[in-house]
Specification:
The protein is mainly α. The chain is built from ten helices and no strands. The protein has two domains: 42 residues, Arc Repressor Mutant, subunit A, CATH 1.10.10.60; 121 residues, Tetracycline Repressor, domain 2.
Length: 210
């Protein structure tokens, strides 16, 4: 009995030691996300696999699974991590805030152009950065008198615009001209949002007098 117990302990210790050796010092979730983003930037989305990423980092594939559940979770983390670089205006009127967020979002998409097909495939991102940016836009639109349902519809249109123009801007052609076109499209959408806000405020005031 004692001998069997010693064997079990030895096997357990060996497994723990193998796991420890498979996690090199300095390997963490953020390092993995950065390496995966770099890999996609250089080789495209098809060039990313857990094996290719492990080779890039000089670790075993199993070491990656200690930090991300699978490739899908890794991709979601990459997309949201990039959105963490979007600049949010600290002050200004609601239109200025929304315009600033969307222009910065477009610039980030162009900077990380290898991720654009993945954003399109997943129809955006779902992590905390994406949620926070969406809430900032909805809040700003609310400042124009737009109700939350309409704000969500406008936000969806803005996201589709940014992704669509980024898909064209990511192709080596005439990026400055495409960004200018995006700015025009953004301004037209925001002009429409102003109209919606004024209309909803007017409707609310009229209903209050009835």
């Amino acid at each position: 009995m004692v001998y069997a117990y010693i064997i079990l302990c030895t096997v357990y210790i060996e497994r723990v030691e193998r796991r420890r050796r498979s996690q090199p010092a300095g390997l963490d979730r953020q390092v993995i996300i950065a390496a995966a983003t770099s890999l996609i930037t250089g080789h495209g989305a098809d060039g990313l696999s857990m094996r290719s990423l492990a080779a890039e980092l000089g670790v075993t594939p199993m070491a990656l699974y200690n930090h991300v559940r699978d490739k899908d979770e890794l991709i979601d983390a990459m997309l949201d991590d990039a959105l963490g670089r979007v600049q949010v205006p600290e002050d200004g009127d609601p239109v200025t805030v929304v315009r600033g967020i969307m222009l910065s979002s477009y610039d980030v998409l162009i900077e990380y152009r290898g991720l654009v097909p993945l954003y399109l495939e997943r129809r955006g991102a779902r992590g905390p950065n994406a949620i926070g940016l969406g809430e900032k836009v909805r809040e700003a639109l609310g400042g124009l008198g737009i109700d939350r349902d309409q704000a969500q519809r406008i936000l969806r249109a803005l996201i589709i615009q940014a992704l669509g123009f980024a898909a064209f801007g990511a192709v080596p052609s005439d990026p400055p001209a495409i960004r200018d076109a995006f700015c025009d499209s953004l301004n037209w959408t925001l002009d429409g949002a102003l109209h919606v806000g004024a209309q909803q405020v007017g409707d609310s005031e009229r209903s209050g007098h009835e």
